[in-house]
Amino acid sequence: MHRRLWALVAALWMVAVVPATALAANPVVTLGKDLTPAERQEMLRYFGVRGRTMRLYIISNAQEHQLLGGVAPAEEIGTRAISCAYVVPERHGAGIRVTTHDITWVTPAMYANALATAGVADAAVSVAAPYPVSGTAALAGILWAYQASTGVSLSPARKTAAAQELVATADLARRTGRPDAAATLVRVVKQEVLSGRATSPEAIRAAVIRTAASLHLSLTAGEVDDLVTFLLRLRGLGISAATVHQQLARLGSESGQAAGFWAWLVGLWHWIWGLVTGRLSAVG
After folding, report:
1. DSSP code for 261
2. What radius of gyration, in Å, describes the C-alpha atoms of the chain?
3. CB under 8 Å to 135, separation ≥6 — which residues?
4. Quick one: which of 7, 70, 136, 280 has the most CB atoms within 10 Å?
5. Over the stretch 237-277, which tens digit does the pLDDT of each residue have?
6. How far apart are CA 131 and CA 152, in angstroms?
């Protein structure tokens, strides 16, 4: 009996461990062309790959402009390639996971949203720089690394849409000072459009306004117009709503936890304010 039990445990351990060791078979690092030799070594140390045999690509500012030109403000793309990316393919169903370091303008959630739009699937992505940078131009390196690591050729139209999404979300986040709410707004409304729940310009506009209101996020008329225009273009790209949802499932869970925390915090504040002002209602 004990022998059978240990044999079963050993078999289950092999099933759990062997596939995991194969997940990082094709990791890829991209480094900004304008980093100094010391900065390149710093980035390799940060990614934990210094001294390892690794496929490494150098991304130029021209490549960043090729993806983002006409989408991101020229000053955000800049004239130098600094940001770096480390992409590791993961098992099917793992979804997209993003971490950042010294990226000031784009959050992990914004990257994940845009990467799902571009067609990236099941990957761990780390975006970093040796000193603070906006992070917009990093998208070019991430997409390059993903294609090199998986052999998947991403649609140019979807890559352009991803760049538009990233810039629009980051612009909204910077103006409002609420990056999490901006990322959640775009993710939720994008799902409504891709799933077919909102298809006409009027329905998409209503979805944007309704979702922004639920997040207590104030949009300008121009921001609403820009989001509607982007979402109408996105609708015609044949992107699967189910696939995007699956890739961002972890992100949705984290956003839900954050929303729950803020709701609790707001409720606590109202309770304290009512206690201080003597307007606390009796309970029970």
Report:
1. H
2. 22
3. 83, 100, 103, 104, 105, 106, 111, 127, 129, 170
4. 136
5. 999 999 999 998 876 444 444 434 333 333 343 344 445 44
6. 31
